[in-house]
Amino acid sequence: MATTYPTPAPATGTDPGAAPSRRRPGRPAGGERPSAVATTILVLGAVYCLLPVAWVLIASSKSAGELFSTFTFAPSTHLLENIGELASYRGGLFWRWMANTALYAGVGGLLSVVVSATAGYGLATYQFAGKKAIFNVLLAGVLVPGVVLAIPQYLLLAQVGLTNTYWSVLLPSIISPYGIYLARIYAAASVPTDVIEAARTDGAGELRIFATVAVPMMLPGLVTVFLFQFVAIWNNFMLPYIMLGNDRLFPLTVGLSGLLNQGASQPAMYTSVITGALLSIIPLVALFLTLQRYWQVDLAAGAVKA
């Protein structure tokens, strides 16, 4: 008499009648294939964005004679020489422009974050008369280009004698309608009402709740506001061009524009302008790489659980 043995039970979660998986190693679990069209578009977009940076890097390594006489993407060996010439221009005026730009962008960005955080948190948390109207005005302010406001701001600051000073560039940079809008949206999404009510029950005041509870939850959004405002102020040209008359107060954009205008009569200045443009993007890249770790999704996830 033949002996029969029990058939081993299938593993949990598997169908005994299902065919064995033939997924190739490296293939996504869902069977999706990378889209060649999407990949091509992304590569072309990356090339489009990085090509000017590569050109600036290569052109800044050329001498004034090589700049217009050699192949565009043929590098040379004069980068350090060009940096030295730029650094010695009028006793190091370029570094003064760099420091001014860092002051305008750094202080202006931080103050803008403070204003945006408080205004956005208030609009997202509290109920008061005229709240919707104020938010609609902010949305309208997002649509107004900053160039349109430059002349009215100049006339207002001229009335109080603040033109041609650091304040003439800093004060208009503090208020950012787009920053307030982002802070309001992020506060509404990341700061749970239950957490605020729990803090109030524990006896915390409104200012303490904002500083110790809301701000840490809003941190990724506030970092985004700071980066947007920092880059906007760093690249701003029209406002300081109108407000400032003393070249010792110029930011990089206005200062390099003046050097570019001199290039019509002094072609050697073109290499200084290109080298200055290369040096001006280094702080932006460093800032982005430093702050990108704060961009975390759902920072407050898990703060409130049913």
Question: Could you please describe the fold and organization of this structure?
Answer:
Helices cover 64% and strands 0% of the residues. The protein has 13 helices and no strands. The protein is globular, with a radius of gyration of 28 Å. It starts with 35 loop residues before the first helix and ends in a 15-residue tail after the last helix.
In short:
By secondary structure, the protein is an all-alpha fold. Helix content is 64%, strand content 0%. The relative contact order is 0.12.
Task: Detail the topology: elements first, then pairings.
Blueprint: H1 36-59, H2 64-67, H3 79-87, H4 93-125, H5 131-142, H6 146-159, H7 167-174, H8 177-190, H9 193-201, H10 206-234, H11 238-243, H12 252-262, H13 269-291
Helix pairs in contact: 1-13, 3-13, 4-7, 4-8, 4-10, 5-8, 8-10, 9-10, 12-13
Please tell me how large the radius of gyration is.
28 Å
Low-pLDDT parts are 5-14, 297-306
DSSP strand tally: 0
What about the largest sheet? none
Q: Which secondary-structure class do the elements indicate? A: mainly alpha
Cα distance spanning the termini: 61 Å
The pLDDT mean sits at 84
**SSE order:** HHHHHHHHHHHHH
Strand-residue fraction? under 5%
Number of helices: 13
Helix fraction, binned, reads 55-70%
Q: Name the overall outline.
A: globular
